[in-house]
Amino acid sequence: MVVTAVRLLPRNPTQSSLTMLFSAIAALALGIGATAQVTYQNSSGTRLRVDNGTYGPEIEEVHYYYDQWPIGIAAASDGRIFTTYTRGDYRYTLGVVVNQTAEEAYPSLELNLPVDQLNTSWNGIDFGSGNSSAFISVQAVYVTPESNATGRPETLWAIDTGRPTIHNGQGEPSMPYAQPGGPKLVAISLANNTIYQTFTFPSNVHYPSSYLNDLRFDLRPNVTGTSGKGIAYLVDSSDDGRLGFIMVDLGTGESWRRLDQDRSVLRGQNDVPSYVGHPFYFEQVGRPSRWLLEGLDGIQITPDGERIYYSPLTSKRLYSVPTANLRERDSNPAAELNAHSNVSDHGQRGGDANGFEGDNNGLVYQLMPESNAVYFYDSTPSGNGKTNPFVRDPRILWPDGASVGADGYIYLNINQLYYQPDWNFGVDSREHPGAILRCKLPNGGRKITSLFP
Ligand SMILES: *[C@@H]1O[C@H](CO)[C@@H](O)[C@H](O)[C@H]1NC(C)=O
Ligand SMILES: *[C@@H]1O[C@H](CO)[C@@H](O)[C@H](O)[C@H]1NC(C)=O
Ligand SMILES: *[C@@H]1O[C@H](CO)[C@@H](O)[C@H](O)[C@H]1NC(C)=O
Ligand SMILES: *[C@@H]1O[C@H](CO)[C@@H](O)[C@H](O)[C@H]1NC(C)=O
Ligand SMILES: *[C@@H]1O[C@H](CO)[C@@H](O)[C@H](O)[C@H]1NC(C)=O
Ligand SMILES: *[C@@H]1O[C@H](CO)[C@@H](O)[C@H](O)[C@H]1NC(C)=O
Ligand SMILES: *[C@@H]1O[C@H](CO)[C@@H](O)[C@H](O)[C@H]1NC(C)=O
Ligand SMILES: *[C@@H]1O[C@H](CO)[C@@H](O)[C@H](O)[C@H]1NC(C)=O
């Protein structure tokens, strides 16, 4: 092929014969017409169809992040928006939006362990702090409305992973193992802004390599297999360990695992997504290029509490399982087998998904960093069985967390995660500000309240 192509040119091309050739091509191009589109990557004047990167309802810009880059988000009934930040060297890990351009530590800065106390080491192995009364690194938050049945005020629930990201002298990132006490589920009253309950985990439920990533709740007293004070469904998304669900009985504090290392919760193997048109490899200082490793990530419970939809971060597939199977205890020898055989595989959805949210119409929203979009799956009997488009916008540069407010809007945290230094050989190409965007839910959708009588 190469030999043939060379023969099309003069055998000994001189400077002047090449110049003549290019002049002729240029003249030909101009001859087609002075209005021809000859601009370089500028399609604004084209007659061709272009992808404008946009569909769905109008998007509003609600908040701008100029300081710490956020992860999780939760909206309260009074309009307050809570945000989380994984640590690091950040001053605080749980915050509240105070005006359009700033957030502050919530409920107080003093609850955050100082950066030099986030990790410790034992026989040369790094461990996160085991302090159960201070914040180490909060990943996600969820607001449950005031619940008379359980006597709980409107509550901000936070999961602390107990595993900060630390960097050695060469700037190589690593995540210390968790020790009991560090990883915890914390309940904060939004009426008096005080932590009123903390749940920690035994080491056979939360492993040293576990990583708590998301949380959902059912506070109905009549939920089977609980003490009647409600249950939390948590996600272990570990990059370096075993994946699965962790449940907490909010009356007794007992916790247990289900779908441990089930095929449906595992990370996709050697997954290469595309972000803003770039194939993405996971690149950390001190290591060769690899692949993202995160497994089970997004979860959402249906408004009747019967089913949880979920997906690993590095997978295109959507799954669901009856919550009854997650509530089965280890005392039932068939608990794990039954849970596995009751998993539904809803097939591929058209991309990897990050966090999930849901509304009272049974729509399961899935955040889609590959296409700067939010998709939804209709979990009701009238659903079409497909994952469907909801909203897409060039500003949705890695939608990380989402929260449906009492006002019928879905709030999206935008954090440009794929540009962060720990994924790009230490180069930070995020650009301030990050953002909270919001848009109205379809069909008058609202926050789920049916699970919080
Ligand atoms: C793109 O082309 C249009 C005319 O088609 C011009 O007005 C505009 O300035 C160009 N934009 C850039 C960034 O070059
Ligand atoms: C973008 O393109 C879609 C599909 O062609 C169209 O429906 C929509 O109105 C366009 N949006 C904007 C902002 O131009
Ligand atoms: C927003 O809040 C921050 C922190 O309290 C403050 O420094 C800043 O002046 C406020 N900005 C505006 C525009 O009110
Ligand atoms: C925490 O981790 C950093 C980075 O590896 C290390 O320099 C520091 O000594 C560790 N702190 C403790 C108390 O072990
Ligand atoms: C945990 O951290 C808090 C806040 O820094 C501190 O007041 C408390 O003494 C610590 N507890 C232990 C057991 O170290
Ligand atoms: C705050 O509210 C919680 C939950 O209702 C309650 O248990 C706690 O005693 C209250 N704390 C303070 C300081 O008022
Ligand atoms: C459980 O309680 C909820 C609300 O408290 C109620 O709507 C539901 O019908 C009850 N379910 C059963 C099976 O009793
Ligand atoms: C599967 O889930 C359904 C509820 O959706 C339940 O009735 C059934 O017993 C479960 N099967 C197993 C094997 O656990």
Automatic annotation (TrEMBL):
Residues 338-358 are annotated as: Disordered. GO terms for cellular component: extracellular region. It comes from the Eukaryota. The keyword Chaperone does not apply. Gene3D superfamilies: TolB, C-terminal domain (2.120.10.30). It holds the Pfam family MRJP. It is found in: Secreted. InterPro entries: 6-blade_b-propeller_TolB-like, MRJP/yellow-related. Keywords: Secreted. Belongs to the major royal jelly protein family. This is Major royal jelly protein. The lineage of its organism: Eukaryota, Fungi, Dikarya, Ascomycota, Pezizomycotina.
